[in-house]
């Protein structure tokens, strides 16, 4: 009876599917536990061995919790809108839904083969209309809400309208657009309905605004910062420029403080929390208004150092700032416009990261110092960002390193306001100084000067104390086809929401997935994309009359729309009326354990927390935070292989034969290289047409040796290892155990297929405890104390490891335990039955088969996890080292319940002791029961 992993795994995967073993009920007397993996995008390339790492860890934990008496929700689905499918549609004309379906089918096949305990009855896909109709509904709730700073939460827009009707907007404390003019209740009533709608748009949680965006002309869409690398789109490597576009935006900034405070309530790593704190970027300081000299303009700046206001030597505006072209003098116009053009080709991320390059242009204009009225030069520089703060800074070179370098570079006078030497560098500390050359602030320190200058600014009407955040409102429009359609039509340029009872608003068919010739988004190609407000249906564009039929929104929502609330849909995935019922939401509350990659530390996690808090404000979500505990799994790295081609030829030189000639280092597919780093040259020639006529300079052994480098596992590096191949050769249980065995979950670790055979051998050894060639060898005899000890050491260790997410050390303990039980010739049911349960979260297929061989008819996944019993680890005897004058000479096994006199009597009568003493009496016998025996003299 041999262990056949492929046969066993297919059998039990079929069993789980047919019996819906992992189907979860929303009602249970058991405590709930919700385990979730970060929403995967179904790539056409399928999984490589790095992808399942987090899934295996979450699956182990979900299976363990299930066996510990919890009602476990462990769902899976697909973040199935996305740019890759759209790009493929542009290239081939194939509808993205077809590509997505094929990708999902492949993904699901691979996931099933690894044996995950997902409740597939709850599967969701963001690209399915029955899912995104709820995303559209949430968008409408955001549109119909505003953020009340007094109640510190989002509220219905109706409460804001009531305030306007009663008292106007002067006393309203809201997160809203800047510089909204005040109006009275009477003035509000006198506004036309369109004027009222335009005003409300300045307060809504989602709103239309001219926004600086990352525009990729080649892809025809806006990109998020994390979709850009070195000024190029991450997908395709196309140039990205900054430009202004009218976009839907979300007021995530309203939640900045709550997003910060919430970090103290959740169990995330400190490094992850710090990433979010830095992204939110809270700063306390002052808003200062500078008048532009000889012009009817003002420049508002936010500064964390209002105490340094008398050290302002110049001002710097972001090149995109609205005022730049308005205040630039004719003499400086050409230089300023050229600089703006050059800056538009750099991403915000690149500009923020580049601290070495100093560049800027003088506008020719001057501002006035609010106190001295002295003229201050106004420059533009790309180290200032339009979207951060006000897009303008008051430059104090004496107290800021970057301002200091800028002033030195351009020869701008530096005003020293500190009792410190700044001839070599700026003094950027907030303590250890008093101010000088600072008028009414002379002799004051940072704290006293800050309070005093804010008081004077407020008296002048040119500033006030303010808390600022780096977190900016999130752009929510994408010029793409394959995304959630907005449920929006336009009347006289103002957005109107379609009633949710007509949702979903389904994506229309288009002939081309590229933007239109006149630059409209791909939905501009749709011929049936207008809203009939009488019949409440989508109709042909030719019927648009701007009376009852209107144009629909042409942008789609970004990829993060569906992923910002999807965990709640898993709680009640078939509900057609609401995104999840109150009963389901109240039962599951939030995700107890969330596992995924660190690349989502800011974007996805901030947006998710924002939407969750918003839905909590409107009494739809039961908790403030969506994910109670979060773990980032480390990356499994690939070992790339390199060949070396002599430049200008198709001749490849073995790595150990390179003699100094100029060679190109090229990737080779790792499947063509054996464990000794030898390339299969014939297979290499057959691999790619351009290598068909390759020639090789081999080493003295007639081999071609490749080079290696450990780096990210990627299809473009040809270092991807397909999990299907591992499952086929060794089985899924071997893959699961090996991925955990590679190292701590949260650390990056290189993949090395050479080590997998040891894990496969371990499973065969485990099998032999239960069966030999002739069949099952289980006995009902009473196990020995040593057998119980081996088992309970393992139970204890596995419980501790799973609770602490130290899965790699559990695998080591399994190996130790099986080795010990093999030596003890253990085939005892009382040991092997609990052992099958303990190992089942890690290797579920073999565990199911062993459980069945033991005579059980139910799934091991539903068995109770064994209880650890301390008494089996209590030692009844101790092997003492016996030392003479501190040197150990022999060991003796003695019962632990002996007292000192009994131990001394036994040791002194031992012939080995007599041989050491040679008739002498020791001066002293030191005995520490349970530890040492030492004879002195």
TrEMBL record:
InterPro entries documented for this protein: aa-tRNA-synth_I_CS, Leu-tRNA-ligase, Leu_tRNA-synth_edit, M/V/L/I-tRNA-synth_anticd-bd, Methionyl/Leucyl_tRNA_Synth, Rossmann-like_a/b/a_fold, tRNAsynth_Ia_anticodon-bd, Val/Leu/Ile-tRNA-synth_edit
Key words of the record: Aminoacyl-tRNA synthetase, ATP-binding, Cytoplasm, Ligase, Nucleotide-binding, Protein biosynthesis
Gene expressing this chain: leuS
EC number: 6.1.1.4
Any GO molecular function: ATP binding
Protein name according to UniProt: Leucine--tRNA ligase
Lineage, top ranks: Bacteria, Pseudomonadati, Bacteroidota, Flavobacteriia, Flavobacteriales
Pfam families linked: Anticodon_1 (PF08264), tRNA-synt_1_2 (PF13603), tRNA-synt_1g (PF09334)
Catalytically driven reaction(s): tRNA(Leu) + L-leucine + ATP = L-leucyl-tRNA(Leu) + AMP + diphosphate
Domain annotation Leucyl-tRNA synthetase editing: ranges: 277-458
GO biological process entries: leucyl-tRNA aminoacylation
Residues annotated as signal peptide: none
Residues of the Methionyl/Valyl/Leucyl/Isoleucyl-tRNA synthetase anticodon-binding domain: 787-900
GO cellular component: cytosol
Matching PROSITE patterns: AA_TRNA_LIGASE_I (PS00178)
Annotated positions binding ATP: 715
Family of this protein: Belongs to the class-I aminoacyl-tRNA synthetase family.
Boundaries of every Methionyl/Leucyl tRNA synthetase domain copy: 38-159
Renumbered ranges of motif 'KMSKS' region: 712-716
